[in-house]
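SEQUENCE WITH STRUCTURE:
===
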Amino acid sequence: MNMKKYFEQGMLVLLEEKNIDNITVGEIIEEVGSCKGTFYKHYLDKYSLCCACLQNRIYCEVSQDAESWEQFMKQCLSVFEKHARVVLHAFDSSDVNSARHYHENLTYKYLIKKYAENGGDMSSALNLLALKLYCSAITDLIMNWLSDGCKESKESIYSLICAVMPQTVFRELSAKSA
């Protein structure tokens, strides 16, 4: 096993217990049994390790090529439910390099791709801003759902996600499926 895999496994163990802002690089190194030089050889900071960990261990179960927005979001919700504590603790940071922002950017990229495929006006700064704000709102909904123990069904959460979708986005994403 290479060191990156050890660091990712160590991060998963720590994220089971506490949020990313309360984890130190020293704790990660101690969990893995390595040294700072090895850590910084592979990662810029704990947030880059966290994002790599999510990408390689959790997001790999979500297809960026999902046929529809519904399929994409339900895949995310299923994977997040399966790894609820880790995802909740990973997303619990507003740091610019955090996993929360990483997730928002992945969702944004998926929406941009689908929006463009359906002929949406990507030149409108208002539409791009609406998409960015929407991705942030989705993450807030997901975090609330996770922190509540995933009590509501994935279908209910998906309905909420659709309910807060900006109308310009909804029209473009639902145009092709109609």
